[in-house]
Amino acid sequence: MANVTLRNVRKTYTGGFEAIKGVNVDVADGQFCVLVGPSGCGKSTLLRMVAGLETVTGGEIDIGGRVVNEIEPADRDIAMVFQNYALYPHMTVYNNMAYGLRNRGMKEAEVKSRVEEAARVLELTPMLERKPRQLSGGQRQRVAMGRAIVRQPKVFLFDEPLSNLDAKLRISMRVEIRKLQRRLNVTSIYVTHDQLEAMTLADILVVMNGGQVEQVGNPLAIYEKPATTFVASFIGAPPMNLMSARTEDITSQLGGSAGEAGILGIRPEDFVITDQTPSGGVALGLTVEAIERVGAETFVYGSRAQDEQRVAATPGELPPGEVIVRIPGTQAPAVGARIRVAAVRQKLHLFSGDGRTRIEA
Amino acid sequence: MQKQAIFQSKLLPYALVAPQLAIVLIFFYWPALQAVIQSFLLQDAFGLSTTFVWFDNYVELFRDPAYFASILRTFFFSFAIAVLSLSFALLLAVMADKPLRGVMLYRTLLIWPYAVAPPVVGVLWIFMLHPSLGVLARYLRALGIDWNPLLDGDQAAALIILAAAWKQISYNFLFFLAGLQAIPKSVFEAAAIDGARPMRRFWTVTFPLLSPTIFFLLVVNIVYAFFDTFGIIDTMTRGGPGTSTVTLVYKVYSDGLLGGNLGSSAAQSVILMVLVIVLTAIQFRFVERKVTY
Predict the structure, then answer these.
(1) What residues contact A131, with CB distance under 8 A and at least 6 apart?
(2) Which residue of B lies nearest to A51 if distances are taken between CA atoms?
């Protein structure tokens, strides 16, 4: 068992492209760390650096108190689950799991007991003699998991392991992975671009963008207090509504300290349809443009009526002037109707004009 | 989706395949038929009289120890050429598959020899290894090796094998490289994490995953060694010294065109034809089904 510490880790390619611009993350023993971000943000590169599949051009990667920058992947005591599973197509399920053990010169009896134990846990016992091509996507995914757990490594690395599965299977495997990790209590680093997967799996969430860490912390804390507008719009679905706020609005209505234009953020679920304006809160008049009814909830896509707006806005993450409101599934205003929504003071997020700093009012 | 094309006229489909059929019939089946007919005939030395002799040409052939020697030699050549060119090609392909600076240049250069015609290959190697003209031959003699493939049959055979294998490396390289690139990189990465050192990784992962390619190339190389080495043999040794580099194909040529024994030559052609059919059948049967992982 081990903790994983990244100290100012950098990756610069020979062409001069900086993929990772100094990352500091500390994953404690047994914690489940999720790296999340849009494609191209460097999260997979960072994971591959921890695995030893990419060289580290700056900083230190520390696994269990040992700097592993120059250590071969095989000697880092890690196991990795790949996005395409990377099973050995010519080997049976049994041999796929046994391969890493045999390479390390383990006795065949011990290999057998470990593989059979893993197969039992993952419900793969009837498939041990099959080849990967005879398995379904979910079964292949479990074989990939099995190959990782038989080794009993210090750290599990997951590179988007669920992205090749269909939506339903993805959810059940997500739960399985979490349960398995809890039971084995092995430090894990998990890469995904799916914020829902990230929120549900993580003990510690690392939001990345453009080779940098935007925010590290407990997933709920990040959801409640996003540090930047990037995090605000990336974590949470549908994304947080962002609109630029005039100085006088911020100072007068919100009591902010900023002497310049800022960005106001309100999550779709924090709006209620009401005629009142909560004290210190924000109210918006909207024309309903579209409705999405998904059963438990309804998403209202509205455009702000210019004459009624209390907080002036320029385009943020949303199309110009568009605001998403989440309301209970029992309600549904008609398209074209004019509604008035409001959010209380506690639910407002305020950021500096460049979106890089959160302003605590 | 409709796979069958529908023609209004009954004649149009026949007209469309007619050119191809004509080429196949005139240039493949007609000569093959001629060879079969010829193999049952015996001509006198001046070509004035022809007798139908049934299987006498074949019977004589199988009583001739020189023919058996030629069969054995051909099999040995094929085996040696296939093993030599396959293993070198695989080594080069594994090297060229790595992310190296200027790797595209290496790859292109490694493919070039394939464009060289077999007789030219023969001439190239003669310039290097001819006992009196050859550049390398001088060094070999300087090393104390009695190098003279014009007199030494084994050395001549080695020379043919070397030249023929060299020419085939490019072709094999191309297929191996494609085969290697078809394997997802993550499989090798998984093996690296699984603690397999490079040599073990090669034998337990790369080699088994390439086995369909290897089998395919093995058949192709044997066919190549059987037939396409003619140009190399003819320019380098003309079957000599003695008959030490006379392969089956070369024997067809030398018995028929040089020796004037057209009946025997035709019989040998027919035997070769049967061999090719067998090899091709094996290839079709196994490449598709048996040798998969």
Answers:
(1) A89, A90, A91, A92, A93, B293
(2) B193
Of A72, A78, A90, which has the smallest distance from its Cβ to B209's Cβ?
A90
Beta strands in chain A, from DSSP E residues, in sequence order:
4-12, 18-27, 32-36, 58-63, 66-67, 78-81, 155-159, 187-192, 204-209, 212-217, 241-245, 262-266, 272-273, 282-293, 297-304, 322-328, 338-343, 349-352
Which tokens belong to A263?
A: 């960005």
Instruction: Compute φ and ψ for A104, nearest 5 degrees.
Output: -95, 10
| Residues of B with Cβ-Cβ distance to A151 under 8 angstroms | 194
* Distance (Å, whole) CA A169 – CA A166: 6
Task: Give this prediction's pTM.
Answer: 0.79
- What is the spatial distance between Cα B10 and Cα B12, in angstroms, rounded to a whole number? 6
Collapsing DSSP states into helix, strand and coil, what is residue A179?
helix
Other beta carbons within 10 Å of B112? 9
* Residue corresponding to tokens 């800022």: A262
What six digits make up the tokens of B5? Answer: 């094309």
Q: What is the pLDDT of residues A69-103, one digit of tens each?
A: 999 998 999 999 999 999 999 999 999 999 999 99
Predicted interface score ipTM higher than 0.95: no
Domains of chain A (ranges plus CATH)? 4-224 (3.40.50.300), 230-359 (2.40.50.140)
Q: Which of A148, A189, A155 is nearest to A64 (CA)?
A: A155
